[in-house]
TrEMBL record:
Example GO biological process: regulation of translation
Protein name stated in the entry: Eukaryotic translation initiation factor 4E-1
Biased composition, class Basic and acidic residues, residue ranges: 1-14
Keywords assigned by UniProt, alphabetized: Cytoplasm, Disulfide bond, Initiation factor, Protein biosynthesis, RNA-binding, Translation regulation
UniProt entry tagged with the keyword Protein biosynthesis: yes
Lineage: Eukaryota, Viridiplantae, Streptophyta, Embryophyta, Tracheophyta
GO terms for cellular component: eukaryotic translation initiation factor 4F complex
Pfam families (UniProt xref): IF4E
Record's compositionally biased regions (Acidic residues): 19-35
Organism this protein belongs to: Dovyalis caffra
GO molecular function, one term: translation initiation factor activity
Keyword Flavoprotein set for record: no
Protein family per UniProt: Belongs to the eukaryotic initiation factor 4E family.
PANTHER family listed in its UniProt record: EUKARYOTIC TRANSLATION INITIATION FACTOR 4E RELATED, EUKARYOTIC TRANSLATION INITIATION FACTOR 4E1-RELATED
Length: 224
């Protein structure tokens, strides 16, 4: 499925359908200072184009991370979408990676899968990671989202979701998969992802289990 933006022909963008009334510093919502915009209802075209899976956006607020008792406690779901129109209505009204605060992590995962190593679907998985110069990941993040929700991967059932991480000196996009030990599937996903991104640099795959045990010392099991 090619996920085209149905709103490009319109003059006005749809307001953020899922903005909270009490957005914190570093949040993802775009728009002006009028808080009433967060309370407007979702306005979609009459005809909708359902996706094969439902997907959920998650946001890990950097301003709350220092206050959290355990990792991931500041992470919260933002919006679950099931159609092409719902995706674009959200995407067009949130900050892109280059506008997020340093330390932010923005996730898009299949619905019912939490972006955590401990999630039953993710526990035996791993991730491919691509690194970009600071503020240069916007286009690749969008292309990653479109490839995922548009079911462009031959082994799409292996994919859990993706996360873009904004750091002080660089941005990182990681593509999470289910079965890290399935080398053939992981290599296929990695090679296709490089093509979708038109990315020529090195790309490595780390098992979640290695990352949990070895942290920063974890080595790539696969490389392309």
């Amino acid at each position: 499925m090619v996920v085209e933006d149905p709103q490009k022909s319109t003059k006005e963008e749809t307001p953020n359908p899922n903005a909270d009334d009490d957005l914190e510093e570093g949040e993802i919502a775009a728009g002006g200072d009028d808080d009433s915009s967060s309370k407007r209802s979702l306005s979609l075209p009459n005809q909708s184009h359902p996706l094969e899976h439902q997907w959920t956006f998650w946001f890990d607020n950097p301003s709350a991370k220092s206050k959290q008792a355990t990792w991931g406690s500041a992470m919260r779901s933002i919006f679950t979408f099931a159609t092409v129109e719902e995706f674009w209505s959200v995407y067009n009204n949130i900050h892109h990676p280059s506008m997020l605060a340093v330390g932010a992590d923005f996730h898009c995962f299949k619905d019912k899968i939490e972006p955590k190593w401990e999630d039953p679907v993710c526990v035996n998985g791993g991730k491919w990671t691509v690194i970009f110069p600071k503020g240069k990941s916007d286009t690749s993040w969008l292309n990653t989202l479109l490839a995922m929700i548009g079911e462009q991967f031959d082994h799409g059932d292996e994919i859990c979701g993706a996360v873009v991480s904004v750091r002080a000196k660089q941005d990182k996009i990681a593509l999470w998969t289910k079965n890290a030990s399935n080398e053939a599937a992981q290599l296929s996903i990695g090679k296709q992802w490089k093509e979708f991104l038109d990315y020529n640099g090195p790309m490595g795959f780390i098992f979640h289990d290695d990352a949990k045990k070895l942290e920063r010392a974890a080595k790539n099991r696969y490389s392309i």
